[in-house]
Design brief:
Radius of gyration: 19 Å
Number of helices: 12
Oligomer: single chain
Length: 337
Amino acid sequence: MHELALPLLIGLIVVALAFDFLNGLHDAANSIATVVSTRLLKPVHAVIFAGFFNFAAYFLTITFPSLHKVAETMGKGLIDKNLVTPGVVFGALVGAMFWNVVTWLKGIPSSSSHALVGGVIGAGVAHAGFGAIQWAGLNKTLLFIVLSPLIGMAVSMLVMLVSSWGFRGASNKGAETSFRYLHLLSSAAFSLSHGLNDAQKTMGIITVLLFSTGHLAGKFEIPHWVAISCYLAMGLGTLSGGWKIIETMGSRITKLSQHQGFSASAGGSITIFGASLLGIPVSTTHTITGCVIGAGVARRASAVRWGVAQNVVVAWVITIPASAAVGALFYGLTTLF
């Protein structure tokens, strides 16, 4: 157990919630890019819509507690929870927040989730060496950096094909009206899955901090006040928007129709709900990008601006190493005090 004065503990929890707010701000584009780019909803209405469903994920976990496995992976599945110190938590959060701010200012749709993973790994290794890493959890997370966008792409293409077949006899006007409603429904599901998977990452960090300082003991469980705080912080962050990234996600990669927007959101929600059931902290950014590309390719490969997509992938590759380096640096600074 590591002793920490109560004001410092509260300060660290506030920093964690600030990361969750920034996560919602940074990743708002994931939830609403398709509905904004297709003009299904106005941007202001879209962020309110997404923020509501981000927070509503809390009530889903009350009904299905098994959906909180992602928080367990973040709290004890990446770094041995017995080796986590308040300094490690501080370094992890600052490393992730630094990378989020840089990519947000540049309009790059990088992953807040993998920035936090990188921060945790960097600070944990700086504290206790590579022996602190829980390789099963880390390998699973790294594997899904590649798999989640590919799965999302494949599912979105399948949804496009199945729904095209299902509406083959409908008039253009009738199909367009139906896809507008379906797109709104799938966007709500994606916002729900986004809040569910992403808010849990900060829950795991706060919970392991409480365990390491002796404020929690016994079985690793997420306190309700922690869950509510994280979902609320993420929902408020989403309400603040992230317009540069929305532009990249919603229009620069490919131009979407209502049919494609529905397919991308549906593919993304299916993929992320599946990952949450398995306790895998996937990137909603990576997933929806793959889904948008999949929906574009289903129309024709030339509809995708591959140069923009390539720049996005480069950001994915460097996110974990960059945030790990910053996390290790800020952990090192804490040892000076």
